[in-house]
């Protein structure tokens, strides 16, 4: 073998691996293994095109945590689906929204939903909002911000989120939760933000 035809040799210092690269490859590998596409090249092209499109919109895959944009994308994809979905369907929507597998598994763990049981997607989404916001109050403000349209928030989804998150957190009395939910859904009204 002639050295003239060999590829250049790089030293360790010359090779720079971006910090997000291993996580991107790991999530991509899991996607391909999970979906088992017949056309791996086409599926790969579609996966990376979606990833590039999301990043060009200012959205990034978050290894831990979830961005507001990812939550909004998930809600749009969930909206109109049956109230309860199989874990696989929720995983698929989360993956399409570029939420890391690690975060999804963490949310399933916190929600204590057993394997094989259909999950209320609104409850799953509310817990995802908690991952992004941290506290119950910040979570509810984030949910209001995402659900708001022209200064109004649909009371049903907000009331359901309040009830589920308060029950999950356990620090709010059930009487206060019931009173709050009743106030929000009084006559099926829509909350107006001022």
Task: Walk me through the topology.
Blueprint: H1 21-35, H2 40-56, H3 68-78, E1 84-85, H4 87-96, H5 101-111, E2 119-120, H6 121-133, H7 136-147, E3 152-153, H8 155-169, H9 174-185, E4 191-192
Antiparallel strand pairs: 1-2, 3-4
Helix pairs in contact: 3-4, 3-6, 5-6, 6-7, 6-8, 7-8, 8-9
Describe this structure as you would to a colleague.
With 194 residues, the protein is mainly alpha-helical. It has two domains: 20-57, no CATH class; 68-186, no CATH class. The chain contains nine helices and four strands. α3 (68-78) packs across α4 (87-96), α6 packs across α7 (136-147) and α6 (121-133) packs across α8. The N and C termini lie far apart (76 Å). Mean pLDDT is 79; it is low at 57-63 and 187-194. Keywords: Cell projection, Cilium, Flagellum. It comes from Catenaria anguillulae PL171. This is RIIa domain-containing protein.
Task: Give the mean pLDDT.
Answer: 79
Separation, N- and C-terminal Cα atoms: 76 Å
Any idea what the shape is?
elongated
Adjacency order of strands in the biggest sheet: 1-2
pLDDT < 50 stretches? 57-63, 187-194
Q: Per DSSP, what share of the residues sits in E-state strands of 2 or more residues?
A: under 5%
Structural class: mainly alpha
Q: Tell me the major beta sheet.
A: 2 strands, antiparallel
């Amino acid at each position: 073998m002639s050295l003239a035809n060999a590829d250049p040799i790089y030293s360790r210092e010359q090779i720079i691996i971006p910090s997000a690269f291993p996580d991107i490859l790991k999530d991509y590998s899991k996607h391909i293994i999970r979906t088992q596409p017949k056309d791996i090249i086409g599926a790969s092209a579609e996966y990376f095109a979606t990833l590039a499109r999301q990043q060009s919109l200012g959205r990034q895959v978050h290894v831990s945590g979830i961005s507001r944009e990812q939550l909004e994308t998930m809600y749009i994809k969930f909206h109109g689906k049956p109230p309860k979905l199989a874990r696989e369907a929720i995983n698929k929507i989360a993956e399409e929204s570029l939420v890391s597998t690690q975060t999804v598994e963490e949310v399933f763990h916190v929600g204590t939903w057993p394997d094989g049981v259909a999950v209320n997607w609104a409850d799953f989404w509310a817990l995802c909002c908690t991952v992004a916001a941290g506290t119950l109050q910040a979570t509810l403000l984030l949910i209001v911000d995402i659900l708001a349209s022209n200064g109004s928030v649909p009371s049903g989804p907000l009331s359901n989120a309040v009830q589920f998150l308060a029950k999950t957190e356990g620090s709010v009395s059930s009487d206060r939760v019931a009173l709050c939910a009743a106030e929000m859904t009084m006559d099926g009204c829509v909350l107006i933000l001022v």
